[in-house]
Structures are given as structure tokens and as C-alpha cells.
Design brief:
two-stranded parallel ribbon; 7-stranded parallel beta sheet; 11 helices; alpha/beta; globular; Rossmann fold
């Protein structure tokens, strides 16, 4: 039986997990919180509280490994705690590491692809570059089939702009020339699933849609779908943003996704934010 060990079994990994469970896979998912054990069980996932438990038994059973665990200022916690055990798991047929397009840094709205030099301008981006390098080093030394997925801004059920537009808290933050790339969570799962079916050890993939766009356009489109007026426009310099939100506006780039189509044969279900938002609204029953 094929078995996925999903480290940090969160938003994106859960969508992949549902697909694999439907195909008869076993999915082992880790969580930091004992309170989430029953939630994972209800999904059909075998829960494992980690950190706090050993991964040895789960690694011994796993055929595939996915890590969604983010690094911090101390480095990648999975590599720090379990690197030796993972290196010894030579039976793994596929390893996936979920990274971010933040590793490219600010490009002033220019296009980037997987060959673009990494030049992160935020601490989070720098931590991701270090984590990618750590996983590449470990897997190269152990001969393990690593695949890196650089995710753009994630949206999907429960993660869309509609609630803020409805309650009046949405704002169109205007910064001249600002563009982001995005990806629907179902398309993330499609890319991961395609890679599992057709592995290319050592590959790096940008995971994003076809339509990088200014964030204010997305908010305005969501309002129009709801039949509401455009939320207020606020210049970036006057916006009251959290440090995390402000850091997103520190970078502007357009991300190419040709490789997921060429190598993996992926056809995006939601190639732009318009189709993605319309689908979210339809699923919610308008």
C-alpha cells in the first residue's frame, strides 16, 4: 500500500490527502496540537502529534513524504529533529517540500522562473532559501528523490476575500506597479498529485496560476461578484498593515508556471483569480 507521511498536515496537504485517500492510500498526518487529533481522524488520516512523538515508525511505513512545516529563525525544524532519520529512509519513492515564491525576492514586477537567482528581501524568504538548501543537501547525500514546490499566494475555501468584503473590512491597498501571483489550493493538490505520479528527482516547480495581478483588482472583483461597491482605495503608505501584511507588499513579481505544464502535464482548474473566485462563490451557494 502507498503511504504518505505528511508533516504539518495543514490547508494544502489536506486537499492532497483527500485525493490520495480516495485512491486507497494511507495518509499519516502530523499536528502540533493534540486537540486536532480527532479532526484528522474524521478526515480518514492517521494522526501523529509531532513534535512530541518519534517519526521512526511512520517513516518506516511511508512510501512518500511531504513536508509543509515552515522554517523559523533557528532553521527548518524537521531537518533539525528528524534529518538523520529521513536520510536513513532510503525506501522513500518521493519527497515533496512546500516552499514559497518569496525566495525570488522583489523583481519590480518582472517575470521569474525556476532558473531565476534567489534573492529574498524578507526574513521569511531568507529562511526558505536556507531550508531549501538544507533539504537539497540532505537528499543529495542520501540519494533521496526531493521535489521542491514554490507556492504563490494560496487561496481557496475559507481563504478568500469574500468575508472581508461582506463585513466591510476589505480595503484596496494601492501601491504603484504591485503585482502578486496566486494559486488555488485545488491546483496545488493537482500539481503535487501529478508529481507523485511522474516524479522528477531534483525538480523545482513554481506553483501559481497564469494571471499575476494587482491585489486591489482581486478585491474589487470579489466585491462585484457579490454585487457590492468597490471597497475603499487606500494608498500603501497610509495603510495600517501588520508587519506580516506589509512584508507581502515589499515584493512585486510575476511568476512563470511553464514547468508544471511541460513536465507534469498539469492543466490548471483555476488559471486566474476570476475563475477561482467564481468557483468559491458557487460552492458557497452564492
Amino acid at each position: 500500500m502507498s503511504t504518505l507521511l505528511s508533516l504539518g498536515h495543514g490547508y494544502s496537504a489536506q486537499v492532497l490527502g483527500r485525493r490520495l485517500l480516495a485512491e486507497g492510500w494511507q495518509v499519516i498526518g502530523t499536528t502540533r496540537s493534540p486537540d486536532r487529533v480527532q479532526t484528522l481522524k474524521a478526515m480518514g488520516v492517521e494522526p501523529l502529534v509531532w513534535p512530541g512523538s518519534s517519526l521512526s515508525e511512520a517513516l518506516g511505513r511511508a512510501t512518500h513524504l511531504l513536508t509543509s512545516v515552515a522554517p523559523d529563525a533557528e532553521g527548518d525544524p524537521v531537518l533539525a529533529a528528524e534529518g538523520a532519520a529521513i536520510a536513513a529512509a532510503r525506501h522513500l519513492r518521493w519527497i515533496g517540500y512546500l516552499s514559497t515564491t518569496g525566495v525570488y525576492g522583489d523583481k519590480g514586477g518582472a517575470w521569474v522562473d525556476e532558473s531565476t537567482p534567489l534573492c529574498p528581501t524578507t526574513a521569511r524568504g531568507q529562511q526558505r532559501v536556507a531550508a531549501e538548501a538544507g533539504w537539497q543537501d540532505l537528499c543529495a547525500r542520501a540519494g533521496l528523490p526531493l521535489h521542491i514546490f514554490r507556492l504563490a499566494g494560496i487561496y481557496g475555501p475559507g481563504r478568500g476575500p469574500f468575508e472581508k468584503v461582506r463585513n466591510g473590512s476589505a480595503r484596496r491597498i494601492i501601491r504603484e506597479g504591485q503585482v502578486f501571483s496566486r494559486i488555488h489550493v485545488e491546483d496545488i493538490a493537482e500539481v503535487l498529485h501529478a508529481s507523485i505520479r511522474k516524479p522528477h528527482p531534483g525538480a523545482i516547480y513554481n506553483v501559481c496560476d497564469d494571471d499575476p495581478a494587482p491585489p486591489q483588482d482581486v478585491i474589487a472583483h470579489a466585491a462585484r461578484l457579490l454585487g457590492l461597491p468597490d471597497p475603499p482605495a487606500i494608498p500603501f503608505d497610509e495603510a495600517d498593515l501588520s508587519p506580516m501584511a506589509r512584508s507581502f507588499y515589499a515584493e512585486s513579481k510575476r511568476v512563470r508556471n511553464d514547468r508544471i505544464k511541460r513536465e507534469l502535464g498539469v492543466t490548471l482548474r483555476y488559471p486566474d483569480y476570476r475563475t477561482g473566485l467564481a468557483a468559491l462563490l458557487d460552492a458557497a451557494g452564492r
